[in-house]
Amino acid sequence: MIAKPSPILDFPEGKSIAVIGAGSWGTTLAQLLGEKGLDVRLWIREPEVYEDVRRDRINRTFMPGIRLSSRISSTREFSVALKGAGVVLMAIPSHFFRQTLRDLQPHWSPGAVLLSATKGVEIDSTSFMEGVVREEMGAAAPYAVIAGPSFAREVAQKQPTAVTIASRRPEIAHFLQRLFSAPYFRVYTSHDVTGAELGGALKNVFAIGTGILTGMGLGDNPRAALITRGLAEMVRLGMRLGANPMTLTGLAGLGDLILTCTGSQSRNFQVGAKLGQGVPLEEILAGMAMVAEGVKTSRAVYLLASRLGVEMPLVTATYKILYEGLAPKEAIKKLMARELKDEMEAMTETW
């Protein structure tokens, strides 16, 4: 058996990695790469976070208690972050993605790979991040997405984690697989970008739903039902968009769905739990330092499913709770009163 090349030897000499966004996930992935001996430039939007990282090498706002590698340099300038970058990792909220791409393009290094760690859907276009990249940078732009069950705090603590990197170009997926793999961070590859992005986005919507159930004081039965039927909605929309349904039974789909719908570290779960307790959405969001992608994604996916004629009752219920003031108890009542169906037929109806 031929040994796989070292990730560091495999990375172009003299190149660095730009990480755009210093939230918990961007900071954690920058740390992973820095500890592997790679030069990382971390672009930080928030002035107070930049000062903390520059002065103390600690991101107290989004990843307290973790001292960052000396191989990580921080900047607030796109020109500095992207200078000589062979990989550009986007770890920003979906609603900033398009404009940030436009701001980055004047500084882009030819041939640099764009790796998206963003899990969401753009509301106006109802596009996943690959669609945004194609529109802004062209269909030939080297693109990949990282997805899977991975709370940033546990990765930063080096707890065993498995994720998927998907790209339509196998050589890019395998290059990034070697680049990011670590003893505690196992990376699989996939060519199904659509499935990986869809699973990463929709799990946030369903996590709000399971959080609502928990906040209402309900038990394990309704949560299991929501997770299972949420997976059915993922598969239904995924097949309509051309995704491989098997992707949605893997790490990027079911794996991330289980984690986000059951783990209290999930921001989307926390939003749902407070909604279930009767706290107004505006008050919940005002008290959060980080973005809960599922709030905006629920609207985008609701619009997308409506346009495509794909029935997604759980997405619809979550959207109406968030945006139309539907009471959670009434939403559950409506869901339970729906027409009785065969389970397998309900997996693929209307696509």
Description:
- The chain is α/β, with parallel strands linked by helices.
- The protein folds into two domains: 7-191, NAD(P)-binding Rossmann-like Domain (Rossmann fold); 195-348, N-(1-d-carboxylethyl)-l-norvaline Dehydrogenase, domain 2 (Orthogonal Bundle).
- 52% of the residues lie in helices and 13% in strands.
- An eight-stranded mixed beta sheet has the order 5-2-1-6-7-8-9-10, with helices on both faces.
- Strand 7, helix 6 (129-137) and strand 8 form a beta-alpha-beta unit.
- Helix 15 packs antiparallel against helix 16 (328-336).
- It is globular.
- The N and C termini lie far apart (44 Å).
- Residues 1-9 have low confidence and may be disordered.
Describe the structure concisely for a colleague.
The protein is α/β, with parallel strands linked by helices and 351 residues long.
List keywords for this structure.
N-(1-d-carboxylethyl)-l-norvaline Dehydrogenase, domain 2, 2 domains, Rossmann fold, globular, alpha/beta, 10 strands, disordered N terminus, two-stranded antiparallel ribbon, 8-stranded mixed beta sheet, 351 residues, 17 helices
Total number of β-strand segments?
10
Assign an overall shape.
globular
User: Structural class, from helix and strand content?
Assistant: alpha/beta
Distance between the termini: 44 Å
Report the helical percentage: 40-55%
Query: What CATH architecture label of the largest domain applies?
Result: 3-Layer(aba) Sandwich
CATH classification, class level of the largest domain:
Alpha Beta
Strand order, largest beta sheet: 5-2-1-6-7-8-9-10
The tally of domains stands at: 2
